[in-house]
Task: inverse folding
């Protein structure tokens, strides 16, 4: 009988800067502004990771799932082998309508960049798998790639959105992928990273995403071990060695699979303390007590500020005792979230409203007309 | 939901009570939980007698009928009730028209169970009060760890006989095996570990069938009095047996009692 | 027959200090000390001494020292003194050697090989004196998914959640029956549990009627193979019901309260005649298979109108994780596992010292097993057997338990010195006895205060340790092996515990 292996995962620990900008009118804009904003928080990172999530960037392929793949490995040979193995799986399990290498600038400017490719595809379900929804099917295939195919990582998989990330300062990553020239999005979220362990790798940069949900995160989750075991029961393989991944999966489980509204999800990830719950009226107390009883293992304990990106929506949330900063602001149709107010002021000196959200209370920006993106 | 029909109650139509005292329900296609939900609901609404038709395997009948105000109910069952009939029974009366399965009267506290038929294994397990009358025989491990306390003295009267391990660990109560068909008692390991209570057997038993802690003797007049009392009650409840009290009582009976209240007192040291 | 057994203890009396007050004589129920009026001095019979230290602590002049007897047989690594003495006792009596308390053999204590984490820089440690620190836990089944309907600003829960126990700190008092322990000890546990927002477990000896009204809400009542004192009122007065299948100190064997301990009050509570042996058979004779357990679980849910969580307590033995998984599927809301070092009022020494597995390994395998099968939410785990301090509690929870039971620790808080003579019924500390003269020594006000103090002290320490790890709610510690590291353990042990080595 094979011996049970102990859970020898390791987790990267990092602190960071986060920034998000959304045009609630649905007007799309390039990354030049958010690149300047995140660069303004340069000192919060250390050049070992940066990344972007962009919504609305693939209008011509908006019906297709856009997979962004990273093929790592020491030599180009390793990377091509991983790519071949992946493509064999894609060709059995999906209909790929278009694929290409993601355009980038000169590789020599970056540290060890992997081969990065994108595929636009639709699920091709067979047999028993036909019973699965498209999304369940895609998630199971992503977990399969990320755990079974060595050197291949799906790091973006939503419709009409994409993540771009790597090792470097976020503004360098933006330039590498030419985000200020090639893409127009109605929401950009950005992350600048400060990992405390020196070994940085491209897959470990933020955002983390699954389907159209992306997360950028500042902080460290002390409850990682607990969150991880809970999510693993629901088939989420935590492979990317960072606690941000568990937030992405928790958001997917609660919002997509269990269809809970964001207010409730916020109360699961960052619930009020018992003292406060005990003082509430009976129905509220029952709700909050039950939520903590059922979803206690998903409480994100320890300091965090996150920006969740989704189709048509951007959400900011901090831990319940607000150990990490987050500033929210509005100007016309623009909705901003940032670790520091200065970065917002840099690109939008005049603001209608600036505020610091309470710990555990989500701040949500939604498109005024969801149909502009859903069509 | 159970169909509840009012059965003509105690009085005439003119003075019929506002709520029926007696209700009949059909258990066909009802699961255990639903049937017991219904019984509890009826008990709480003041019903005193329930007739259940088409019982087939529903378990724990009578178990959910504890109420702080100690309400009592008579239940008449037609069909084959499932395991753990009358488990933890708290003073209710249950009559079964048919056979009962395993675990009748498990840890029963008070009340009465009458089975017009046979019963399965572990009948009267850990029972500490009330009476059970079974017309025919019963299975393995009858009256296992039956116990008594002050006025709580459980009684088990079996028209037939029992299988092995009868009265194992028995700590109190009265068991009567009548063997009315006179097939002879075949059980082995009778009274293994017995340290209280009494078993009466009509007919003979071989010493090799008894556990080493059991003493066997003929009955004396005071035993006859006890037997007379419970045989009378047995026949009142199960008249279809078709025998008279005298026919039964005027036969040889054996009394099995523990040799010691402390069967294992010398087993341990230090 | 002349006994060839050494006295276990040596008693040294300082004759200068001794005032011949005869206090030691009165304190010792074993009859160790006697007064010699002719010589006007106290004489001690060392063969009777249990080493419980009662006379030492209660000697007003501090004139007595009791220490392990220095006599020895020729040293022999294979034939220890204990082995020789036990063998001689059996040669002299032909009996099974009984003992009390938990396994005292030097099996590895994993708690002492596991170290906790603390935050440095990347994650702030939290000061529990100033900031909220939550130890509240719910024990019972939870659904995987909550069905919620939200609309018009109103949120409604559609999922029914079964009954759960709420504890304000993850420490419960383990099953100790009235009869095995004294009325005063039992009552002290009940009072302390209610005072501390936790629960006590009645064990299998019933719950005295006069305690039900006041302490029923803090009681977990047990249903064991002997079914003592069980009726519908007993079941319904409690907060939860526990089916005892096994006990860590004596897995696979039953219990036996000797007739001497079945006093009138014990008899009344157990509802058996006074002076009879109260025998708990090895198995429940209505449970010969897992489907039978399922039947008893359901019968108890029926008997309590589905209002109370049902716990099943088993001993941690070799393949217990698979069995526990079956128990969850059989409908148990809580699984209590009792490890190798769990205590007992009486057990054959051969069983106590040789059967079962350590609780630390058991918690980890059970948690992993239930997670692997996707049924971890369907039950809570209470770990028992060898929890000695607040750090053990924290480690148990990080390995996957929801809460712990403490038995020996609670008794020690009341005065127990682990002399292991519980089965004699002569406990000089008034804990493990039904002799009214002895149990009267335990003052319920004081004993319950000592217990409440213990719970409060441990809870503070747990909060400190959590704060250090940057965690402010206990649920974020559960199964969080990230915060544990092993030292001095073999690779396979780390594998079973699911933790990394220190420095890894």
Result:
């Amino acid at each position: 009988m094979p011996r049970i292996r102990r859970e020898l995962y390791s987790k990267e620990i990092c602190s960071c800067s986060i920034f998000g900008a959304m045009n609630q009118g649905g007007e799309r804009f390039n990354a030049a502004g958010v690149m300047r904003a995140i660069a303004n928080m340069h000192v919060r990172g250390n050049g070992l990771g940066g990344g972007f999530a962009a919504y609305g960037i693939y209008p011509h392929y908006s019906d297709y799932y856009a997979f962004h793949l990273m093929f790592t490995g020491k030599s180009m040979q390793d990377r091509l082998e991983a790519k071949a193995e992946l493509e064999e799986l894609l060709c059995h399990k999906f209909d790929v309508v278009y694929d290409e290498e993601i355009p980038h600038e000169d590789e020599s400017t970056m540290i060890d960049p992997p081969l990065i490719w994108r595929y636009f595809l639709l699920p091709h379900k067979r047999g028993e798998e036909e019973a699965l929804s498209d999304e369940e099917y895609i998630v199971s295939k992503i977990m399969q790639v990320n755990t079974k195919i060595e050197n291949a990582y799906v790091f973006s998989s939503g419709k009409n959105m994409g993540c771009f990330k790597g090792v470097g300062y976020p503004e360098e990553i933006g330039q590498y992928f030419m985000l200020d020239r090639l893409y127009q999005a109605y929401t950009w979220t950005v992350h600048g990273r400060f990992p405390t362990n020196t070994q940085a790798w491209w897959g470990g940069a933020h955002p983390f995403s699954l389907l159209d949900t992306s997360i950028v995160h500042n902080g460290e989750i002390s409850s990682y071990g607990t969150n991880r075991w809970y999510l693993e029961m629901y088939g989420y393989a935590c492979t990317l060695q960072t606690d941000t991944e568990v937030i992405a999966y928790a958001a997917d489980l609660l919002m997509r699979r269990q269809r809970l509204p964001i207010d409730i999800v916020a109360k699961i990830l960052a619930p009020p303390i018992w003292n406060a719950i005990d003082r509430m009226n009976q129905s509220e107390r029952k709700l909050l007590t039950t939520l903590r009883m059922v979803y206690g293992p998903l409480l994100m304990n320890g300091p965090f500020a996150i920006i969740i990106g989704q189709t048509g929506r951007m959400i900011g949330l901090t831990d319940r005792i607000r150990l990490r900063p987050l500033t929210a602001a509005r100007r016309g149709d623009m909705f901003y979230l940032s670790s520091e107010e200065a970065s917002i002021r840099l690109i939008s000196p005049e603001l209608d409203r600036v505020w610091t959200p309470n710990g555990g209370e989500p701040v949500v920006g939604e498109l005024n007309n969801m149909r502009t993106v859903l069509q | 939901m159970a169909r509840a029909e009012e059965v003509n109650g105690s009085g005439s139509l003119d003075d019929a009570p506002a709520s029926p005292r007696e209700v009949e329900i059909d258990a066909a296609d009802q699961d255990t939980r639903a049937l017991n939900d219904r019984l509890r609901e009826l008990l709480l609404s003041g019903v005193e007698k329930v007739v259940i038709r088409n019982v087939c395997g529903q378990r724990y009948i009578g178990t959910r009928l504890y109420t702080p105000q100690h309400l009592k109910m008579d239940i008449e069952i037609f069909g084959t009730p499932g395991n753990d009939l009358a488990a933890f029974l708290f003073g209710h009366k249950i009559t079964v028209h048919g056979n009962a399965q395993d675990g009748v009267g498990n840890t029963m506290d008070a009340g009465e169970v009458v089975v017009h038929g046979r019963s399965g294994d572990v009948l009267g397990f850990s029972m500490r009060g009330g009476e059970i009358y079974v017309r025919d025989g019963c299975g393995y491990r009858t009256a296992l760890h039956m116990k008594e306390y002050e006025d709580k003295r459980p009684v088990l009267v079996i028209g037939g006989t029992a299988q092995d391990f009868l009265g194992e660990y028995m700590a109190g109560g009265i068991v009567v095996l009548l063997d009315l068909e006179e097939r002879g008692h075949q059980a082995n390991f009778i009274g293994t570990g017995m340290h209280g209570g009494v078993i009466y057997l009509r007919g003979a038993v071989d010493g090799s069938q008894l556990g080493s802690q059991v003493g066997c003797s003929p009955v004396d007049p005071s035993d006859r009095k006890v037997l007379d009392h419970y045989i009378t009650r047995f026949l009142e409840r199960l008249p279809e047996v078709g025998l008279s009290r005298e026919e039964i009582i005027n036969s040889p009976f054996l009394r099995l009692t523990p040799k010691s209240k402390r069967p294992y007192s010398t087993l341990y040291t230090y | 027959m002349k006994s060839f057994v050494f006295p276990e203890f040596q008693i040294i009396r300082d004759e200068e200090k001794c005032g011949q007050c005869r206090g030691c004589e009165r304190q010792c129920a074993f009859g160790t000390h006697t007064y010699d009026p002719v010589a006007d001095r106290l004489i001690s019979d060392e063969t009777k001494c249990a080493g419980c230290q009662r006379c030492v602590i209660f000697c007003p002049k501090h004139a007595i020292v009791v220490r392990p007897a220095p006599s020895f047989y020729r040293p022999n690594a294979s034939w220890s003194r204990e082995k020789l003495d036990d063998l001689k006792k059996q040669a002299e009596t032909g009996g099974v050697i009984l003992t009390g308390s938990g396994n005292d053999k030097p099996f590895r204590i994993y708690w002492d090989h596991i170290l906790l984490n603390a935050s440095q820089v990347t994650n702030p440690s939290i000061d529990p004196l100033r900031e909220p620190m939550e130890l509240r836990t719910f024990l019972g089944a939870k659904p995987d998914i909550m069905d919620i309907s939200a609309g018009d600003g109103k949120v409604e829960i559609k999922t029914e959640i079964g009954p759960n126990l709420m504890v304000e700190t993850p420490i419960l008092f383990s099953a100790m029956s009235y009869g095995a322990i004294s009325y005063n000890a039992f009552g002290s546990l009940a009072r302390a549990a209610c005072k501390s927002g936790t629960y006590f477990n009645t064990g299998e000896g019933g719950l005295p009627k006069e305690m039900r009204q006041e302490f029923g809400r803090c009681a977990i009542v047990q249903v064991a193979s002997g079914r003592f004192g069980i009726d519908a009122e007993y079941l319904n007065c409690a907060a939860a019901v526990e089916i005892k299948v096994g006990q860590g100190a004596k897995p696979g064997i039953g219990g036996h309260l000797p007739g001497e301990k079945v006093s009138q009050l014990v008899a009344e509570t157990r509802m058996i005649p006074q002076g009879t042996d109260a025998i708990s058979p090895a198995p429940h004779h209505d449970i010969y298979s897992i489907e039978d357990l399922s039947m008893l679980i359901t019968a108890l849910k029926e008997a309590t109108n589905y209002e109370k969580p049902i716990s099943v307590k088993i001993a941690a033995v070799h393949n217990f994780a698979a069995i526990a998984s079956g128990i969850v599927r059989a409908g148990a809301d809580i699984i209590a596992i009792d490890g190798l070092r769990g205590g007992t009022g009486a057990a054959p020494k051969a069983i106590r010292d040789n059967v079962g597995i350590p609780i630390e390994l058991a918690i980890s395998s059970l948690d992993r097993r239930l997670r692997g099968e996707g049924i971890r939410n369907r039950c809570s785990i209470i770990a028992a057997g060898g929890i000695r301090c607040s750090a053990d509690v924290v480690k148990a929870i990080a390995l996957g338990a929801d809460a712990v039971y403490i038995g020996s620790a609670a008794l020690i808080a009341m005065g127990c010195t682990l002399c292991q003579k519980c089965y004699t019924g002569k406990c000089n500390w008034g804990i493990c006895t039904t002799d009214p003269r002895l149990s009267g020594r335990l003052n319920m006000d004081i004993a319950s205060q000592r217990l409440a103090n213990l719970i409060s002290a441990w809870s503070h320490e747990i909060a400190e340790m959590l704060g250090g790890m940057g965690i402010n709610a206990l649920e974020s510690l559960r199964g969080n092996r990230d915060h544990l590291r092993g030292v001095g353990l073999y690779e396979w042990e780390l594998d079973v515990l699911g933790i990394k080595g220190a420095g890894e």
About this structure: Chain C has two domains: 9-95, 167-293+313-325+333-501. Chain C touches chain A through 53 residues (CB under 8 Å). The CA atoms of residues 280 and 495 of chain C lie 37 Å apart.
